[in-house]
Amino acid sequence: MEGLSTFQYDILAVLLREDELHGLGIKSELAKRFPKYDEVNHGRLYPNLQALTETHGYIEQGELDKRTNLYSLTPAGKDVLRERAAQLYGDAQ
Predict the structure, then answer these.
(1) Distance between CA 58 and CA 89 in Å, rounded?
(2) Which of 63, 65, 69, 58 is nearest to 16 (CA)?
(3) 64: which of 18, 60, 68, 82 fits an S-S bond (Cβ 3.0–4.6 Å)?
(4) pTM listed for this prediction
């Protein structure tokens, strides 16, 4: 498991529950689920989405329209969340 930040894990968790979202939808869900992210700016969100997509392969980026990208969790993203949960909470099986 690669070293992700808590913020990156929280983005993955949002996508696990919501399936497919655009950037502002992710921002909104982060604020709803994690009050500490009430004021996430674009300069923080989008570089992390890019890293999770291009560097790690945990998110897939699609296109809603010419200006709006959609993000969804890849199987590798689901796996890394399972590994993280096992690391934090022990093996539930």
Answers:
(1) 21
(2) 58
(3) 68
(4) 0.89
CA–CA gap between residue 69 and residue 40 (Å, rounded): 18
List, in order of start, the domains of the chain with CATH numbers. 6-86 (1.10.10.10)
Largest CA distance in the chain: 44
Task: Provide the H-helix boundaries in 1-93.
Answer: 6-18, 23-33, 42-50, 75-89
What's the pLDDT tens digit per position in 36-59? 988 888 899 999 999 999 999 999
Residue 91, class by beta-carbon neighbours within 10 Å (0-12 exposed, 13-18 middle, 19+ buried)?
A: exposed
CA atoms within 13 A on the CB side of 59: 32
